[in-house]
Queue: 2 jobs
Job 1
Amino acid sequence: MEFNIDKIREDFPILKRTVHNRRLVYFDNAATTQKPLDVIESMDRVYRETNSNIHRGVHYLSDLTTRQYEEARETVRRFINARHDHEIIFTGGTTAGINLAAFSLGEKYIHENDEIIISAMEHHANIVPWQMLCERKKAKLRIIPINDDGELITAEYEKLFSDRTRLVSLTHVANSIGTVNPVREMIALAHERGVRVIIDGAQAVQHGKVDVQDLDADMYIFSGHKMYGPTGIGVLYGKESLLEEIPPYQTGGEMVDQVTFEKTTFNRLPFKFEAGTPNYIGAIGLGAALEYLERTGLEKIAAHEKDLLEYATRRLSSVGGLHMFGNARNKISVISFVLEDIHPYDAGMVIDKYGIAVRTGTHCAQPVMDRFGIRGTIRASMAMYNTREEVDRLCEAIEKVKEMFS
Amino acid sequence: MDIEKVQKEIVEEFEIFDDWMDKYNYLIELSKSLPVIDGKYKKPEYLIEGCQSRVWLHAGMQDGKVVYTADSDAVITKGIIALLVRVLSDRKPDEIINNDLWFIDTIGLKENLSPTRSNGLVSMIKQMKLYALAYKAKSEKTDDDGKTG
């Protein structure tokens, strides 16, 4: 199937709307993506036709919904090429997944004076849970620095390992500046030292093929809503042996095997990590999103986004007084920039009036802003349905901003 | 002029603008008229942190009236602050505490006061009223002291 941008745009109803009397240009895809009809309708259908709580009832509808939920799990498994279905844990999103990882891995493996490595380009969601864990266990956080182009300094990474290093938690793609990290090599390096690696894939899975077995990640965590799926659903992939070893995070119904007041034994994987009624409708919607991505073709999406990134980089580079942050050789379609002497908030307010949605501020990555000595940026993050014409509209709006605030 | 009248005056000023761009250009103009905060108050104690833009606010008491000076690193935020200062500054604490600021909504800048914008403005208005309350409490205490003393 050919990559037909007009056809793809047709699939996303929201793209037809106007904002401030202009056709919407949606460039805030790193925050959340829009949803294709397939996803919207899949969830609507469950509510209308099959809704019932899963895994509990013997009745017809419960059985139907359970089957759809488990099919969605299989779709996720296939999408990231995990070995087993039960290595796929449904969570509330990336933040929930990292909190699960930090708690359960922390309980099992982290003791006083142990060390955990993260990087200077993490989203706060991949900093704070580890910080809290370190406080609880009196462990230490070590940080991989970044260079001026916004790339991790891998030589420094190697030096951070000590005999107390227990875990590495690393973003695959930086949300604030778009850098793609060489996670496969970084995982291999940690494994040589017997250290497990957790990857935050929230900004990666929607932009190209991720194969968790090829990466050899011990855990790989991502969100549904940033990959054209619904909000409130995410995935934690973990290697079977690891998930078997660590204790559950949240406890309650569904995740137990036997409960007496003396002792509780836990259910098998993946249910051990899915306490309470899961967001099964979200999971079914996510399944529909992944099938949509598979049908469209991740390679084609990546090629389209690469073209957009190159075009936008070229166009924006020629804007006087515009400085970009994050010039990694390998990056996704995110451009983070500031305009000389113009506050990002002022610029964002005006750009919004032209019907263009960009994000301004620190992007939940204050350490990255600190690294570059800035208080925030304007971020345009592009997705499969964006076009070169939309990049042109952004450039026009930026010229207006410059006129107004000069 | 009381607070109600100043608000009406601002609304009239904004009525002549047809579109947002004229409004924003006017705010940019206004930002230049804001009574600038003394450099010594541009410290963390006077900073109202927003995720998007930052605001510094100082309140002093002169002849029984609260006088505000402020600043922001974003121009549009600063323009709106200039309006707030024009409405609330140089007034007795009671006036400040008991008045509703309805003009921002009427002139179509409500979106700038949504808490999700986190530009520091919502906290700033709260802080302005808190200063007024504090000065009121302080002056009443002085009065009491006067009577008993």
Job 2
Amino acid sequence: MTTEPPVLGDAPLADPAEVRRAMEYYAEKGWTDGLPVVPVTDSYLKEFLATTSRDPAEVLIPMPHINKHLTVRLAAINAALAGCLPEYFPVVVAAWEAFRADGMVTRSIWQSTTGTAPFIVINGPVRTRIGVNCRGNVFGSGFRANATIARAIRLGAINGLGLKPHVLDQATQGTPAKYMCCIGENEEDSPWSPLHADYGFAAADSAVAATVIRSVLHVEARHSTAPEQLAFDFADSLCRTGALVRPLAAGYIVLNPEHARLCDRAGWSKADLRQAVYELGVKRYGELRRAGKEAISSGTHWRVPIEHPEALPQDVLDDEAPVRLIDTPEAVHIVVAGAPNAGVSSIVETFTRLEGPPAIAKVEERP
Amino acid sequence: MLERAGIPAVSICTDAFRASAGAMAKVMGFPEFEYVAVPHPVASRTEKEIADMVHAAMPEIIRILGVAE
């Protein structure tokens, strides 16, 4: 007995040569992230546009400096190419709105050598309606909604905004997160209010938070027994010298439900964990000095060695002196996601220091 | 952008960014746009090395500006 997926016998009738011809056509045009895309016809595109009240010509992302604008129609074409189902499209539109509000995409961050990826957090009832994974393997593959909503944004950048690697996308290395970094919050297993509800949305609303990120770091803390130990691990990971370009550190903690419950049992709220990570958010001056990042440039405001010609004047400190790298609890956001099966969480290193509310847009579904 | 606003300008990038520079010129409708490419990198060079690079690039900058030395 075979357990392999059906090859053709049970699959819908299609001419494999025609399917390959369509796939190769898109590949030859360069309208892909490297993986095969779904062919889009006018009638299929209409199914996507029918899920939103938006005008297809409405501009979601203006990029005048490269003569490009991502319209609702372009966003829909790329969502279809990415393999989204039409009912995912309102989430894709909300994600683009959140990226616009976040501000880094329109400031050309996806042309930068840093090579940031889109990071998307989905909250609310739409998660269950379209099958967004919030539990095990939340950053991994295997879930169509997560995979294709993230891909709709990447293909929108490549095809809609023309940000192709080796051309206008100048990423030095990029990150695997460019393929897929879209998670749902595990609201059901979280002891706390969901992210969107912390920022003025009703828990019954569906919403998408979005920003651009450098990387996702694994944080193993399987045997930690106290929230203080977790806070130390998170602060240490957020403040690693390799992540420091700007003067300060920032990011999301994607806390697995087991860690969230550990905090909750100890009487810690989400705000308490943010406060503790902020308080521990320091590095010794000597560690920054050894990495050549003890001073700040007057031109770029990036971290540079103290002998750099642009280094702002500052006192040379004792190697043991603490230097604050997380200057407010607001620089750290917390989302609960993953399976409640082990003490494994993540740090998502954002490009910018998040201050105040993250960019969140409501998912507007057509009644 | 500056030149279109009537302000003479010369774009300078390092040679690692030639592909992007050409692509930017194309999307802005000026595929033959002339710019100066200096040797990569910039960030990790000393002040003296940067000054030498500027001196070496100066004739090309002046040529593209179209003014007499």
